[in-house]
Amino acid sequence: MSLGTASLEEEYISSENQELSPLQQSVEERIAMIIEANLADSYNHDNDENDSSIYSNRRMFEMTEVTETHIGSSKDSLQTSNNLPKISPKNSPSINSPSNVSPKSTSKNSPKSAASKTSSRSNYDDDYIKYSDEELEQNLQLFITKKKVPSFLMRDQLVDYIKRKSLDALIDENYDEAAKIDKILIELQNAFKEIDEANSPDLESQKNKAQMIENRIASLKNQQNLTNQQWEKRINDFKEKEQEKIEILQQNHQKEREKFEEDCQSRYFLSKFSKPSTQLLQLRRVQKSYALAHDFEAAKSVKAQADLLQIEETKIAQRKAMNSVKVNYLQLVEKQQREIDCYVQNSERKLFELQQERERQQNVDSKVMNQLGKKLVETKTKKNSRIAASSLLSTPTKLPPLTANKRIAEYRRSPEKTQLELKLTDLSSIFAKAKHPK
């Protein structure tokens, strides 16, 4: 820490430990007297006790700020330190104001503290953005010069500010200025009204748009129901037709099996297995030769051998024929089953494609329905917000601060001046003329 900084801190600490100057003590006594006077005045008003107490507290707050400003100016003249002790009234009750009143020491070069002294923010609604008098005056001048309407959030406070300016001019008996301000207020309110009227077609448009969307949603729902019925009918018809085709195919298969059974009993089929062996044919030729030679005993013996061989060969041929029929029949049944399976698979594939097509269409309709629903919600939200904004814009502006009515009441009760205000400004010239008459 440098030597200069240490010396400044020592001076600052020593200045804080000093006792209050006579001027500061008189200021503190004056603040206490103001508090007592305002509290007594608040208790004397029976008709409007609550407003009176609020007014007196606010008045006390204003006087405290003014007194604090005098303290700041007197500090410079007495060359005291930059920070005076906080002045707080002794034995004073709590004050109902936007914040507890505890005047803070102000710096001469602090623009924020100066703005807080010269501006009065609207504190009757903490949810609103509070604008300073400088901001309100700037927007008022923009409206006067360029007819630029202020933002929506500033409207109430700007109207309040204009009414306060009109009240100040009225109390100061500056009637021309008051009339001018009233005219500006009327122009501003007319501008607000024009904006409200301009918003009215939008409300009607939003209402019509919402109605159109609702009608479209209802139409789409009816179309969806009709489409679903058509799809159900189409799928059911397809299933019925496919079932009919399968039944026809099964009937054809049954006919094929019956024909196969008939073919198995045909001479053409049996001829494949009824051909005798060479040995049997040879025995039959020998038998025939013995018979022609009238050797019946030999013919009879050969015939017996040939009959036994024929019986044996017939059994073998029959087994072969049965095996062939069995194999061919199984092949026929398998072929028919493959045909049915292929047809069923093809039918199921077509049915799946139909169901997929129906699902795709339903998904498209659902997406359209969801989009319309979202658009309807957005439209109703915009309509409700615009209606709310229109109702807010169409409602009367808020009342001026609580001190305004009090000031009007005081101005109404104030007595007329009974004496003329005379000021002798140029006494030296009069004395000079008296001393040196021409």
From TrEMBL:
Disordered: annotated span: 1-24, 69-125
Entry keyword annotation includes Coiled coil: yes
Keywords in alphabetical order: Coiled coil
Polar residues bias (residue ranges): 14-24, 70-80
Biased composition (Low complexity): 81-122
Residue ranges that the Swiss-Prot or TrEMBL entry lists as coiled coil: 203-263
Name recorded for this polypeptide: Uncharacterized protein
Source organism of the structure: Tritrichomonas foetus
